[in-house]
């Protein structure tokens, strides 16, 4: 009879403090267990191991032991200084202890008869009890195997160490080498004894671009997010993972309307944009995307809202001159603290780094409105997959902040057309505004239409607009033209029946 | 291969002062074997010229740090310089002698 369903104890986890990893792992590393962190050369394994201890000390005062088989403690201390971690100070405070098992250069070791790694075990136990450690990192297993001839002894001893760590309730990481990004979990068959939890760090060369990802391959008895998640290494902070699917869709939806900065556009949208919505403005070069952005920022500043602009196409001087040409004084807005303009070349950093930097600025400046001009400029520096992740991550982040975001996207063709950016984010955006050239009777005119306005009715017309010294002026709809959005405008015969 | 010593492979004139340190962890069979093997080898090859210090890491784990000991048993030759390490219960006399540089490596 199946009357009694056993109540399995849940595996407790401890938050590592490594940003993003705790989300991917649904709460951190399994408490009291050993997790294998495996990766190729340069995949940031050692950093992961160091950061696990560093975050423990900084966040909750957890003392940690670092067992090094490879680099000397002096090197590790020096290498992580740039990340803002002062291991020496932690050592003095009794929060960090090295167990130095790095080989001495030039020292030859001879094996004669049977041995075990009892000394290592004794040193680890002693270190743990000396500072009351609850975290331990061991870097790296490959280097242990290199020191001894008999791999079987090393394997069984490492197994013994991990079971003793479990008894001591120490949560630990062991790093291990891989030779290929996609292949066996680790060299030396180490997965046989620390197979319960495996994290893989990758550093893949993809279309001439390096892409770091982390993946939790196994988490025995407990849940985690599946698949590869991009991460980056940031100076001053260490590893930052960017969990996309791990992010919850918990954005609140607001009914509060805000001004687009243009009254006519507001009324087209049924009374303005929603306060926490993402708006995409798409158009060919010169159709007025930067103008819409400028008016959007001006509309915010007029109501005392803080506005943030990320510009990836034009320099600060150009932007300020443009705004001036439309009767908007960016300098005054900036002086009043309501505007912040951040200009950057897309090529200056990787997408992940851009993303981290943008998030930092947003968190610091706490804007009410954010504009990105243009988002599509970022397509240049990423693989399609990387770009897609960037867009999704940025969009979700902005939505979490509950602020209005306006992204622009440049279409590759002058007439009609869509861009990769649009296809990536059109489902994530709440509103889409299309700006199009309309070629008629030998002249170029401009048209604007609101394609989508989530949660509201909107004007479905394609309105003609002009740009002058006071900005954008929406005029009459193109009533007798079809094919504008397809990039093939044609005059249609006047239809008397519709009158 | 040319040999300069009387016995094949043995060093002709080992230095006069030997300081050896043996790390063990408890009275395990491996530890006990290492102690007795070490005494035997020293009596045979270094009679009157050696001192042995046995360190039990179960009692004094902190002493393992200095010599960066991982394996048990480990024999450390402190003197003559340079420092050399031999791991294992020293049951392979040939390898132990090579490790102590009391004997050349034979091909």
Question: What would your notes on this structure say?
Answer:
The complex is a heterodimer of chains A (about 500) and B (about 110). Chain A has about 500 residues and is an alpha/beta fold. In chain A, about 30% of the residues lie in helices and about 25% in strands. In chain A, helix 12 runs parallel beside helix 13. Chain A is elongated and about 100 Å long. In chain B, helix 1 (about 30-45) links the parallel strand 1 and strand 2. The longest helix of chain B has 17 residues, at about 30-45. In chain B, strands 2-1-3-4 form a four-stranded mixed beta sheet, with helices on one face. Chain B has two helices and four strands, in the order E-H-E-E-E-H. The chains are: A alpha/beta (about 500), B alpha+beta (about 110). Strand 6 of chain A pairs parallel with strand 4 of chain B.
**Level of helix content of chain A?**
25-40%
Structural class of chain A: alpha/beta
Number of discrete helical segments of chain A: 14
Question: How widely separated are the two ends of chain B?
Answer: 9 Å
In angstroms, what separates the terminal alpha carbons of chain A? 78 Å
- What sequence of helices (H) and strands (E) makes up the elements of chain B? EHEEEH
Shape of chain A: elongated
Oligomer: heterodimer
For the report, how would you describe the main beta sheet of chain B? 4 strands, mixed
Q: Indicate the low-confidence ranges of chain A by residue numbers.
A: none
CATH architecture of the largest domain in chain A: 3-Layer(aba) Sandwich
Record the SSE blueprint.
The complex is a heterodimer of chains A (499) and B (107).
Chain A: E1 13-14, H1 21-24, E2 29-30, E3 34-39, H2 45-60, E4 64-68, H3 73-79, H4 87-92, E5 96-100, E6 109-111, H5 118-131, E7 135-139, H6 141-147, H7 151-167, E8 171-177, E9 197-206, E10 209-219, E11 228-234, E12 238-241, E13 257-258, H8 263-268, E14 273-274, E15 278-283, H9 289-302, E16 307-311, H10 316-325, H11 330-335, E17 339-343, H12 351-365, E18 369-373, H13 384-401, E19 404-410, H14 420-425, E20 431-440, E21 443-453, E22 463-468, E23 471-477, E24 481-482, E25 490-491
Parallel strand pairs in A: 3-8, 3-9, 4-5, 4-7, 7-8, 15-19, 15-20, 16-17, 16-18, 18-19
Antiparallel strand pairs in A: 1-2, 9-10, 10-11, 11-12, 13-14, 20-21, 21-22, 22-23, 24-25
Helix pairs in contact in A: 12-13
Chain B: E1 18-24, H1 29-45, E2 50-56, E3 74-79, E4 84-87, H2 93-99
Parallel strand pairs in B: 1-2
Antiparallel strand pairs in B: 1-3, 3-4
